[in-house]
């Protein structure tokens, strides 16, 4: 890989990991529209029973959670694979990133640490690494530019913050009035 492609890969990797870290551990410090309530993201929970949310209530929640974690880490596996073009190390790095996120969430009360997140993130990283190997180097620049573009789009969304939604239209799924509409002035 040429030096310019290595720099692009480094930029893409940092950009995508920044998005992953921001969306998994830092949601209590910013908001994008009214997708979540930052105050509710300060939590310390530990779930160590694999697949424990299956069969509890809605079928959509586990599908969204497991599928989301899987999809979220496919680009991680792709980017990590491109560094050494070896599947094993890419999976190991994806697992290490996921484990560090889960530990940080628990230690600093920044989210809900769940063994399922670790499992599905690692599986997503594995799928991404295999996919990158299957597609080959001809697509590397595409993956890198997509990761950089996602980082830029995410930064813009964070900068726009609560201006991306109308707090008057926020509905709490639990049936209570939304804290966002009660505490946030209209934009």
Percent strand equals under 5%
How far apart, in Å, are the first and last alpha carbons?
Answer: 48 Å
Count of DSSP-assigned helices:
6
Structural class comes to mainly alpha
Q: What is the ordering of alpha helices and beta strands? A: HEHHEHHH
Domain count: the total is: 1
Strand order of the largest sheet: 1-2
C-alpha-based Rg, rounded: 18 Å
Number of distinct beta strands? 2
Can you give the mean pLDDT? 90
Shape descriptor: globular
What share of residues is helical? 55-70%
Question: Describe the biggest sheet?
Answer: 2 strands, parallel
Q: What are the segments in which pLDDT stays under 50 over at least 5 consecutive residues?
A: 177-187
InterPro entries: Teicoplanin_resist-assoc, VanZ-like
Keywords: Membrane, Transmembrane, Transmembrane helix
Protein name: VanZ family protein
Q: Could you characterize the architecture of this molecule?
A:
By secondary structure, the chain is mainly alpha-helical. It has one domain (3-48, 59-183). The chain contains six helices and two strands. It has helices spanning 3-25, 60-84, 87-107, 115-135, 140-160, 179-183, and strands spanning 44-47, 111-114. It has a two-stranded parallel ribbon with strand order 1-2. Helix 1 packs antiparallel against helix 2 (60-84). The N and C termini lie far apart (48 Å). The model is unreliable at 177-187 (pLDDT under 50).
């Amino acid at each position: 890989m040429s030096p310019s492609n290595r720099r692009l890969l480094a930029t893409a990797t940092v950009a995508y990991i920044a998005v992953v870290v921001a969306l998994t551990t830092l949601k209590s410090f910013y908001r994008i529209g009214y997708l979540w309530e930052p105050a509710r993201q300060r939590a310390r929970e530990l779930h160590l029973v694999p697949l424990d949310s299956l069969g509890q209530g809605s079928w959509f929640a586990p599908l969204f959670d497991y599928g989301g974690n899987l999809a979220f880490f496919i680009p991680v596996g792709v980017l990590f694979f491109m560094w050494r073009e070896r599947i094993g190390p890419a999976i190991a790095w994806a697992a290490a990133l996921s484990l560090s996120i889960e530990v940080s969430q628990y230690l600093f009360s920044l989210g809900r640490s769940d063994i399922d997140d670790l499992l599905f993130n690692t599986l997503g990283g594995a799928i991404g690494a295999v996919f990158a190997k299957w597609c080959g180097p001809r697509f590397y620049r595409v993956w890198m530019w997509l990761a950089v573009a996602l980082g830029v789009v995410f930064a813009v969304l964070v900068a726009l913050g609560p201006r991306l939604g109308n707090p008057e239209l926020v509905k709490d799924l639990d049936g209570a009035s939304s804290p966002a509409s009660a505490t946030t002035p209209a934009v």
